């Protein structure tokens, strides 16, 4: 039951928190401003950031166009620029995709000699990385304060995650106001993503008979319930600062590593399965998780109902009466009902995937690992059955 | 409702976590081993630490004898040694007193030119400090992972706290096994201290109508209830690893700054009042808090019952029926009952103070601040009334 914990990112949370950025820039000479499709130009944040950079007298270079499901090839291109320009701080302005890309660029730029995709497939510790700072514009992944990143290699149809403590962002500017212009669909995906990250940790293989594990599970239950409560309110009032603030806070708590203290190992099979879906079909991560998670639950509940049952009772308020399996199944049904209520997809078809190519997604799901998950360990035949159940 | 958050200490929690220390030592040339009255020599930890230092090939110097309620004069003496010996890491092996002293020594050693007690009385930011690492031997204060410290100046009969982000410990070795030999009285004081730290943050002036504040208050309630539950079990079985582990975890969560994220400002008047008591009478901090906190509650409940009432209902399970004031008072009564149950002191007399010298403790309480507390702001006449009520 031991754990190590390190949350080194300096968090500045709240309206106007960008005022802290100038102080954070003082140790750097050359900044790369990394961003996505340009929404920050439409909502004025781009101008605000440029103003701070100029005000601080910083030399900077821009790299825009980071894709949702950030591409490996963009990471390669951006790191060439970093090296050529002598960048020593990557300032990621965006959501999880831009921030994930920034971390990968930061690591790759100090290790240009290695085959970086080989690193993703054969994870190992590398010393050193360019510093990363983040300005969050979409609440979802918690990437703004953790050291993980996920990249998509479209050519190989693989999507893999990796982590390195050297890419913990040095600072995170988290102003809920910056997320007000996020459209409904992305906001919904962000809500699902937040719930999914919390659920992955909820499905730790650790027993809740241990009092500290139980305490963590209770905390996760509370965070999920709060996220689920604010979801429809936010989707009905996208411009509401308080709802945006709540969601940003839960997303941050969901994957900042703090929960993971005691609950060291979550399940994460649903993430592996979702990464396969989005590697092949390039759908949004949150949308993929909405499809995958209930199907994963349908499958594992037969083998190991206990945590699903706990979820049913403590999160979805199913009456604790009858067989564990029946209670657990009712919990999954209510989870689907919630996802339907916020108009999240439940099947590949809902995301426009009419013919799920099982062989392709199976390749992607097992591109690196031979077993997925920890609550229940899933082999190829199990994951195949889960994909089949989605058809 | 904005907040900044930074928890940079690398935490290694659990049995055998000292194995991580060698890696943490690699950047340092000269270590000061700082400890207290020598209990670490009796329980074998001293030998273990020396072995790691020698195994890592580190040059080191020892400074033992740090007092409970660490003395200003010890800080001055230890920093002379640090400067003379070129120490670049202070390794604090002990409880909150030794760790607090280490932080003060770390800061003072880089600022030998200033009057350090003047800094304590007129807090300001200072750049730079020697690095600090901690090996915790007593669960209580959370000092192992935060940047605060409290010093006692016996000559002036003052006890003041200060904080500086440069003295966040770089690492914390938190092995509950090391606390097994802590005697019953110190263990009990540690339990009271943990509860008191949580309560100080519980009595934030922020309204629980805000959903994120409410979430934090709920978390504090859970941590207090868990601490109160494990308290008597631990006191009845001091050698039990699981109970020691629970307490160490709650104490860490109680004051690592994480809770303080949203609940930025607690109350802390009881701490101010306790510091006055222990400045004059040199009693243990936990014992002082046990005396002060219920008396503080008796006083503030008349002016502002709401949070005391919430405490009564949510922590002490008082039935939510009748007037707020009556419910709140019943909560205070149950808190006293709990303290009595674990044989913690309730009056100065219980700690051997037969004649409380009100003028002396009043001087100490207002040595720096002219108002104490945030839930209710206490002026001199209020604090005098609280001291009078203890007689």
Automatic annotation (TrEMBL), chains A, B:
Residues 190-389 form the Fe-containing alcohol dehydrogenase-like C-terminal domain. GO terms for cellular component: cytosol. Keywords: Oxidoreductase. Residues 8-176 form the Alcohol dehydrogenase iron-type/glycerol dehydrogenase GldA domain. One of its GO terms (molecular function) is methylglyoxal reductase (NADPH) (acetol producing) activity. It comes from the Bacteria. This is NADH-dependent alcohol dehydrogenase. It comes from Propionigenium maris DSM 9537. Pfam families: ADH_Fe_C, Fe-ADH. InterPro entries: ADH_Fe/GldA (IPR001670), ADH_Fe_C (IPR056798), ADH_Fe_CS (IPR018211), BDH-like (IPR044731).
